[in-house]
């Protein structure tokens, strides 16, 4: 499935600088570019215990083998260790042994570039000219000092000639503007990645493509159908945030004012959803009916139009929420933090009354509450809240079903369902005594695990790439779920049949429909949960 790297044609767009464009017509979920061995990847300090420093596979620290020399990095096996030794660790290992701590990630990136003799000079023929905002960064004293300090450290550590300082400082600016956050399949950040070919992709708050990592391999994948010659846009920021938040981040880090359609007209998630080209997948349809999502979005757009003043009046409360997360989270006890989140939510009661759940910061507050439940092992409540977030926020904020954030959410729902499935019903009720018994009536959680995994399995190749680690993991978990079902002698075979024929009217289709209806009912208790669930 490799695509020739030279296929995406570069185009000169006068307003955005260099960019990428599609070389041929592309369908959602297609891999536009696949680069098997990325130019530069550095695992950050916080992830060193959690991932193999060469192939970037996640594993328990106890199963990864520590480098006996520096004791800092870990590997899956001897093959990964030898490959990394050859690539960079031979140098880095002795550096780590000399230093009291692992140097900052950008310094290690520069060090690696210098030790590997990567072509970092801007006029180098192997790196096409890229925006590095050297002048802008130079003008900000704090940033300039930091960049110079980091460049000096890298030059010193790598024993490079001091004459390289200028190039190194420029490359540092290039990294600041062009590096990607390397991530695990579930979007957990694990380091820094620089890939010159893909760094040319420009930004839009309504992107038509996205970056995906699969170990050391980096993919550019399509969200929408894209015609040959059309520009490719990824999003540099969380595009579900408000326009102010997005623009501030883009200005500060990338030095431009975003003028995409969403920014120009301050479009809401519901408007973007209505304009999006969404591929309807029959199995997913049984969980969320896209027709009713469309109707709901349309009526939210009308409601928002009639509530312009009231919505404007919420701005101070919204600003308060952002400062809350930054300040209180670090100092308050978890219970106090949860109470503040609920306060923030009740300050936005106008949005709840009008069922406008997809607008920032409503989903962010719900997310924080959900994460607080997870952190405190309130997993039944976390499940109910996540189902609500998925069905009321995510489906609008990430309109394309193959968006990796959406698919990862579904997979997290599977994990929580599996936890509940492992408990006796009476134990579940003890954990959430405030839930009425009938809330769980319609659901067999073991069946629900299988049905949801079928949805994730359908999406994983178009969200994470065919044959990727994530796809293999989902396939493995689906096989396990089927085996459990086989031993139980339940509806597993019928669901399996539905998986291959997608027939909503078949026995399996009807069973899946009932399961999803049960899950939607459960999501309907999200506010009961938030009212009653303490830590
Ligand atoms: C990662 S680079 C993308 C490639 C860049 N256009 C180039 O010519 O090298 C990021 C920089 O591209 C420019 N850029 C990207 N998206 C843009 C947009 N939507 N509007 C204006 N400038 C943009 C900004 O200067 C930004 O700092």
TrEMBL record:
InterPro entries: H3K4_H4K5_MeTrfase (IPR050869), SET_dom (IPR001214), SET_dom_sf (IPR046341), Znf_MYND (IPR002893). Keywords: Metal-binding, Zinc, Zinc-finger. Pfam families: SET (PF00856), zf-MYND (PF01753). The keyword Zinc-finger applies. One of its GO terms (molecular function) is zinc ion binding. It comes from the Eukaryota. This is MYND-type zinc finger protein samB. GO terms for cellular component: nucleus.
């Amino acid at each position: 499935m490799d695509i020739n790297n030279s296929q995406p044609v570069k185009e000169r767009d006068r307003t955005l600088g260099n960019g990428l464009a599609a070389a041929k017509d592309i369908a959602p979920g297609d891999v536009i570019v696949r680069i098997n061995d990325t130019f530069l990847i550095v695992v950050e300090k916080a992830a060193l215990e959690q991932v193999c420093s060469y192939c970037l596979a996640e594993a328990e620290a106890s199963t990864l083998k520590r480098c006996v020399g520096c004791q800092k990095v870990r590997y899956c096996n001897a093959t990964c260790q030898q490959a990394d030794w050859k690539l960079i660790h031979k140098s880095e290992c002795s550096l780590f042994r000399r230093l009291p701590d692992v140097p900052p990630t950008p310094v290690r990136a520069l060090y690696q570039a210098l030790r590997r003799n990567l072509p970092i000079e801007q006029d180098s023929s192997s790196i096409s000219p890229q925006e590095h905002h050297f002048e802008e960064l130079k003008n900000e004293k704090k940033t300039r000092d930091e960049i110079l300090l980091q460049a000096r450290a890298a030059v010193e550590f790598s024993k490079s000639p001091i004459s390289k300082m200028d190039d190194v400082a420029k490359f540092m600016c290039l990294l600041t503007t062009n590096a990607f956050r390397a991530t695990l399949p579930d979007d957990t950040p694990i380091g820094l990645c620089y890939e010159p070919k893909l760094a040319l992709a420009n930004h839009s708050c309504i992107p038509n493509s996205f970056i995906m990592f699969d170990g050391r391999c980096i993919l550019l994948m399509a969200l929408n159908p894209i015609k040959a010659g059309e520009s490719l846009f990824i999003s540099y920021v969380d595009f579900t945030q408000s326009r102010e938040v997005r623009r501030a981040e883009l200005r500060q880090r990338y030095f431009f004012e975003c003028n995409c359609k969403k920014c120009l007209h301050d479009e809401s998630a519901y408007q973007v959803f209505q304009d999006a080209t969404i591929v309807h997948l029959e199995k997913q349809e049984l969980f969320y009916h896209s027709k009713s999502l469309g109707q709901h979005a349309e009526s939210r757009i009308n409601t928002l139009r009639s509530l312009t003043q009231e919505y404007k009046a919420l701005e101070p409360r919204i600003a308060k929420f952002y400062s809350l997360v930054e300040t209180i989270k670090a100092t308050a006890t978890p219970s106090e933090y949860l109470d503040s989140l609920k306060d923030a939510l009740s300050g936005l009661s106008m949005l709840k009354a009008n069922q406008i759940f997809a607008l920032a910061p409503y989903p962010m507050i719900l997310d924080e509450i959900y994460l607080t439940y997870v952190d405190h092992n309130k997993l039944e409540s976390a499940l109910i809240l996540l189902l609500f977030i998925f069905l009321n926020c995510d489906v609008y904020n990430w309109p394309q079903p193959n968006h990796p954030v959406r698919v990862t959410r579904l997979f997290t729902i599977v994990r929580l369902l599996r936890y509940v499935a492992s408990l006796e019903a009476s134990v579940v009720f003890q954990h959430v005594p405030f839930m009425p018994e009938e809330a769980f009536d319609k659901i067999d959680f073991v069946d629900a695990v299988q049905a949801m995994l079928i949805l994730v399995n359908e999406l994983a190749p178009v969200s994470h790439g065919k044959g990727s680690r994530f796809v293999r993991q989902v396939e493995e978990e689906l096989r396990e779920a089927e085996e459990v079902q086989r031993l139980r002698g339940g509806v597993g075979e019928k669901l399996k049949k539905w998986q291959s024929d997608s027939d909503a009217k078949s026995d399996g289709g009807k069973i899946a429909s009932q399961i999803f209806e049960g899950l939607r009912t459960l999501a309907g208790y999200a506010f009961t949960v938030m009212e009653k669930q303490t830590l």
